[in-house]
Amino acid sequence: MGSIYNIVVAVLLIASSWANAAPAAAGDNSVSSPSLDRRQTTSKYCASSGVCYLQIVTSGSNPTFRIAIPDGAAAPFDTLLQIIAPVSLGWAGFSWGGGMTLNPLTVAWPNGNKVTVSSRWSNGRTLPGLYSSATYKTLSSSKNATHWAVEVACTGCSRWSGGSLATSGSINTFAWAMSRTAVAQPASTGSSFSIHNNVGMFSDDLSAAKTPSSVFSQYIKSAASS
Question: How many structural domains comprise the chain?
Fold first, then answer.
């Protein structure tokens, strides 16, 4: 992603090829030809709010990502994304379409005691530009001595020009990236950022990400007003 911008491959967009790759070593610092772990496994995480998330945890040095969607909905619908990252990371990125190009990218980085979230899109292996078709409502944002974390509700991340999330049992593939280098302008959503230190992908049918629509919408409403 973006400066997830040397994720090298057209095969990032081909779901059938992901299952056969060798896993990357933890803490892989490769930037020119990263070793993609295409067999990362997911789990289900349910919060006290009643919202359940599809969760990907790879190592203590990489971010944790959690996504949630309303049960029974067909795209387009709002999505939830949580990113919990070690304080050593300068930015973390999430791809809603499984690769760097031609799908919504969510990029986040610490900004003082809060977190800035930037909506991005890339047509090629260059720094992704701002993307106005996906908008974010920040529900929580924090930074402490060990981690920074953010949760957002996204409008425009479930369907985009050329693709959408599938909710009826079909497999979706997602990608992520991270860097240990701080962004140039932490307070600006348009900041430039460096190339990644590590990347990964995972696939799932989103059943673990589903929350009853009434609980989902009430959670967003309550969190946004708190």
Answer: 1
**pLDDT tens readout for residues 121-158:** 999 989 999 999 999 999 999 999 999 999 999 999 99
State the DSSP code for 14: -
CATH number at residue 22: 2.60.40.1210
* 3 state DSSP class of 32: coil
| Per-residue model confidence as pLDDT tens digits over 64-114 | 999 999 999 889 999 999 999 999 999 999 999 999 999 999 999 999 999
Q: Is residue 75 part of a domain?
A: yes
Query: How do beta strands 147-155 and 135-143 pair?
Result: antiparallel
CB 58 within 8 A of CB 37: yes
In 3D space, the residue among 208, 203, 209 whose CA is nearest the CA of residue 99 turns out to be 203
